[in-house]
Design a protein that fits this description.
- This protein is an alpha+beta fold.
- The protein folds into 2 domains: about 55 residues, no CATH class; about 150 residues, no CATH class.
- It is built from 6 helices and 17 strands.
- The chain has a 4-stranded antiparallel β-sheet with strand order 4-5-6-7.
- The chain is globular, with a radius of gyration of 36 Å.
- About 20% of the residues are buried.
Length: about 280
Amino acid sequence: MGVLGVFCLVAGCSDDGSSSPLQPVADNDTEVSSSDEAVDNNSSSGTKPSSASSTKSSDSTGESDPDTTVIHEQVIITDSGTVTRTYISSGVFCWTAGCEEKYSSSSAAPKSSETKIVFTESSSSAAPPPTIEGDKLKDNRDGKSYKIQSIAGKMWMAENLNYETSNSFCSTEGGEDHCAKYGRYYVYASAQRACPEGWRIPTVAEVNAADAEVPHEWWSVGGRFKLADGKVTEFGLENEQGYIWIQAEGENNSFRVKNYNDSDDHELQHSDGAERAYNVRCVQN
């Protein structure tokens, strides 16, 4: 058939030798189309050309406006709380100089739709899970080990947690390392994130069930810290009262064990989570 025949099959050449619809683009910046000629021919009669063939408007740079505004919201979760940072971009990846600045201006920023992208980072997201061997749990975040015990159908730490976080405290009064004996002391927000992966602070029902099975001496009586504006004002009640944080239910968010005046009362109570630092006993999820 020859090269010309193949080309005509693809391009749609007519038998009368009319030109192919594939036209070369002129080297200059001006391109004359048949619609331009139609404007000239109809100008005398006042007839406007059809706008059906008009293209999407563009700016002087020849770049079309994007259709979305992207709101980036970075959420960083740490032991001390949550921080959110927000910034807006055009959602356009620019190759040309000045493009990003053009679309970031309020006058050029498109309004048609918005997309929210949330990035979340957690200080504990990459923490290694603990290792359990027999009645021992090794916290692989810092290498410390704890006795564990099954009580009322739940696996408990039989010792208070001693993992250092922000807003956790330790006393060395009298030259004694109270954390080695009683574990660390946490404000409520830190206590909720202090346990190793797969473990947490107990619920009211879990504390009540455990308390019905274990002896009084099983609970720690390491006292507590008082704080004001995030700073320690007092450490006290060692060997007199012991406290652990629990999952808040109603007004109760802590559990107290008294150990003086011939009293071994155990009771649920409400405490100010920002002005008190108590111990933590973790249970397995």
